Amino acid sequence: MTRISLLSRITSIGLRIQRHASARPRTRPASITRPWLSPLTKLKTMTGMGLRVWLTLAASLASLASLEANPAIAASQSRLTCQISSADIQEKAALLQAVLDGDTNAATEYRNLVRRHAREQAECRQGSWPRNRAVWLNLYPCDTQFGQIDQLFDRIANDGYNQIYLATLANGQVLLPGNDNPTPWPSVARTPATASIDLLANAVTAGRARGIEVHAWMFALNYGYAYGQREDRQAALARNGRGQTTLDRSVADTNNADGIFVDPYSPIARQDYQRLLEAVLERDPTGVVLDYVRYPKLSGTDSVADEVRDLWVYGSASRAALLDRAQTTAARSQLETYLDTGRAPTIPTITPDSDTDRDAARDANSATTRNTGSTTTPPRQQTDTPATSLQTELWNLSVAHAAQGIIDFVNLAAAPIQNQRRPVGAAFFPKGNLAIGEGFDSRLQPWDKFPTSIVWHPMLYGGCNGTSCILEDLERVRQFAPPGVTIVPALAGSWGSTSQDRHPPLEDQMEAIAQVAADPRGNINAVSHFSFGWQYPELDQERKFCRL
Is 63's pLDDT higher than 70? Predict the structure, then answer.
């Protein structure tokens, strides 16, 4: 078979793979038949790693073929990315396959080609927008197989990405080797055959070889189901005024049962996170991106927190810290009554006939508190009725306390990262800090008060049959952002098609963001895409459910 006919057949197969992959992901059966592999008999003889190399090559060439067939998409991507040519993709995949087959000479050629691509792409980005383009990526136990990370990172480099946000604490698991994990979370790879393999360190090395920065993507206050089941961690969990944890509520923004949130004031939760950060930073990632830096988004009417018992401030640490904000015994008593009953206590009327009486009146008629340090949404308008005024003061204090816990957690997490001169950022929803009616969005995410020294990653995931809601959210962030803050929009979707019936194709979203970046006020020179699994659902399923 000539090189031209091989390329033609692989491209044809790849187009069928791409059409198949564009369908909504479904539960993977015990075995999958692949009738679309039959035209290329060589693929039938490959096993495991070799098969995935050629499937990825097919998808790469199919992607390029689709660009040639669609000039609009080609124009968009050629302007916004620095992709590898189809010839180089094929050459690199062939060399990697030879390496996997034991060809030592091919190993040198492969490394040299990878380095050349890294240099060429770095030069390309100097005159391209965006300067940095990241993809959110999960690794699985199957990625411990020899050569798998090389194949995966080649795919990412071929697509023009130069940054990866790598899931390092996600869905209640950590990307540390099972036999070197000093944290309370289980490892992603923890079987006897995989427990010695350091996926995070290997990913950092693989990324560096390709000119790709690997940032540790870490859930923050969402510690995961396994953590929440530990008897020795129950005191660390967030609780509301009904004694519930997030496992007891219908949480709308976690895709599975792995979501459980902790009390940001808990010393146990903080110590666990610091220990995890130490282990992660030892693997030398470029930086860290914090996610779930908030409280959960609840369902239905519970998505608005409009009374104190809705707030996640009843964990032992959070409640104690809130009560400690009271400066007097009278104020503390009023605050305790408010937390227990949801209503401000009746205020006795005291006629001040002496200095002592005046002091007593002051304590009884107002809940004097220490400054929380938070500048969340200003208190709502108060009436002249003392009881109503006190009710409002106590509500605003409780909300500010809840929000301040998130800000404090961000600062504590950022400190050791910044001490090593690594960048740190936080992902957030632009509407996560909204006041709604008489309450607030249940996420209580005070992102507008995040430190200006960290990168802001607004998750522009709105779906409105177009890009208008994405631009609306981005504009809201820009209005709140102080001068000098680095903004890196996070977009959700896949190339060439609408995702989950609500996310426009990435090329449409990129064009919209590019128009904002062209504005002198734009200050946007980096974008991230959620996620690799959405762009390649079949490959993601293959990696997630392979047999080791």
Answer: no
φ and ψ at 133, to 5 degrees? -135, 120
| Distance, CA of 306 to CA of 301 (rounded, Å) | 10
- Contacts (Cβ under 8 Å, ≥6 apart) of 462: 469, 470, 472, 473
β-strands 490-492, 455-460: how paired?
parallel
Nearest to 279 by CA among 146, 187, 143: 187
- Residue 6 neighbours by CB under 8 Å, 6+ apart: none
**Average pLDDT for 459-471:** 92
372 to each of 230, 245, 315, how far by Cα in Å? Answer: 32, 25, 18
Three-state SS for 476?
Answer: helix
Cβ proximity of 199 and 107 under 8 Å: no
CA distance 39 to 56: 16
Residues 135-158 have pLDDT tens digits of: 999 999 999 999 999 999 999 999
Q: CA 547 from chain center: how many Å?
A: 28
3-state DSSP of 371-419: CCCCCCCCCCCCCCCHHHHHHHHHHHHHHHHHHHHHHHHHHHHHHHHHH
Q: Determine contact, residues 315/239, Cβ cutoff 8 Å.
A: yes
Under 8 Å between Cβ of 272 and 264: no
**What confidence score (pLDDT) does residue 18 get?**
36
Contact status, residue 434 vs residue 297, Cβ threshold 8 Å: no
Mean pLDDT score of the chain = 83
| Residue keyed to tokens 């990168």 | 455
Beta bridge partners of 435: 440
User: Of 72-76, 194-198, 296-300, which range is least confident?
Assistant: 72-76
pTM: 0.82
- What are the pLDDT digits (tens) for 357-367? 445 444 444 43
DSSP 66-124: HHHH-HHHHHHHHHH--PPPHHHHHHHHHHHHHHHTT-HHHHHHHHHHHHHHHHHHHHH
Neighbours of 167 (CB within 10 A): 23
Contact, 221 vs 238, CB < 8 A? yes
Give the confidence band of 522 by pLDDT, cuts at 50, 70, 90. confident
| Phi, psi for residue 4 in degrees, rounded to 5 | -65, -45
- 65-114 tens-digit pLDDT: 444 443 333 434 443 479 999 999 999 999 999 999 999 999 999 999 99
Q: How far apart are CA 370 and CA 210, in angstroms?
A: 52
The average pLDDT across 457-473 equals 93
What are the two backbone dihedrals, phi and then psi, of residue 270, each rounded to the nearest 5 degrees?
Answer: -65, -45
What integer is the mean pLDDT of 247-271?
Answer: 82
Q: Tokens representing 194?
A: 């995989």
Residue 460, SS3?
strand
If one counts every other C-beta atom within 10 angstroms of the C-beta of residue 25, the result is: 13
